Amino acid sequence: MVSKRQKCDGSDWDLISYVISSRYRIAVLGRLDEGPLTPTRIADRSDFRLAHISRAIQQLRRRHLVELLVSEEQRKGRVYGITDRGTLTWSTIQSENLC
């Protein structure tokens, strides 16, 4: 039997390391794993400032862990969700007790 640890290649562990190196990225991914949210809702539920949450969302988007669920043109009430890649990454973080 192959463990999840052995299944992950180096790039997956690099991604996991990237997420867990920031409490803001951990908060965003964890909240979005529960369902789609706006940055304001994530900030309210995690007790972090909106600026930190917004920055973390953009960082996670660049790595395809989080996606915008509304059009790019919408400026207010932007809803974000977790991608399949984000769900797999978050699942590994939780199963390995890394956060």
From TrEMBL:
Gene3D superfamilies: Winged helix-like DNA-binding domain superfamily/Winged helix DNA-binding domain. CDD domains: HTH_ARSR. It comes from Halomarina salina. SUPFAM superfamilies: Winged helix' DNA-binding domain (SSF46785). The lineage of its organism: Archaea, Methanobacteriati, Methanobacteriota, Stenosarchaea group, Halobacteria. Residues 14-93 form the HVO-A0261-like N-terminal domain. This is ArsR family transcriptional regulator. It comes from the Archaea.
